[in-house]
Amino acid sequence: MKSFIISIVVSLVLIGCGNENKPVVSIFEGETHFENIRQLTFGGENAEAYFSHNAHKLIFQSTRDGLECDAIFTMNVDGTDVMMVSSGKGATSCSFIAPDDRSIIYASTHLEGDKCPPKPDMSHGYVWALYKSYDIFKADTDGSNLVRLTDTPGYDAEGVYSARGDKIIFTSVRTGDLELFLMDPDGSNVEQLTDIPGYDGGAFFSLDGEWICWRASRPQGEGLKDYMGLLQQGLIRPSKLEIYIMNLKDREPIQLTDNGAANFGPYFHPSGEKVIFVSNMDDPKKRNFDLFMVDIKTIEIERLTYNPTFDGFPMFSHDGKKLVFASNRNNSRPHETNIFIADWID
């Protein structure tokens, strides 16, 4: 789903990856929670970088080295030892490392063919494509021993492990709407979590595994008709998404944002008391996305980044000392998106 969201900011052009050595990046005024921002990738389209449980590794998706669409890569947290762990066939998205560091999951379209799927039809306005050929796969950390976990008609993607590794949460259109589901790590015991009309996706667990956070649309009236009509064509319009949380015991959604903007990429602060997320709430017309954090109890929102282009896809290390995110900051040429890591100051 990253490649669709990134294009909210700008229509990305494939850029060759250089070897510029720019490890330390300036911090913008107002970014008081950051120290020692380091750039880990240099050129191309890189995003959705997520820590391993011990924060020694990152898994991310990237279009680079002549690839026509995203493949899955891993690297050390200092940017070294970059290795492609998907096949390079089809499109891939939404990768994550198991807490025991023995396996990875990601979504891929490769079973339908080696080529990248066609781009979405923009005659409908700005839309994402929901490729029906996306399924979720599990593999060893080097990409070997690939196993298919989902096998239902239509889109299955956006999967992540719980911190204990006992569950995977993912998004699927198997019921006719985009809903959240739980499954065991082997793909069994699938259980539906959401059932309200609209898109539910991009979910993550809290560290204790008791809560989830995610992005959702709740269209009504003509908006709902538009949503359902696009969904029948494998498309979705992502301009209005809000951030929600849910306790997995009572399973009652709690809405944290209500600004009518494109809010996405939520992730729990290790304390469980706040959720970091991405939004264009302060600059929707220019499509400038920044990182924000919302307090679960007070619903007060704090802006975290002030880069005039794009910051997104944040994730805290489990000890709360590091934050990894994707950004257009410090680009050597236009339209690049790179991975950055920063020391986090609470």
TrEMBL record:
A family per Pfam: PD40
Signal peptide: none
Family: Belongs to the TolB family.
PANTHER family xrefs: PROTEIN TOLB (PTHR36842:SF1), PROTEIN TOLB HOMOLOG (PTHR36842)
Record protein name field: DUF5050 domain-containing protein
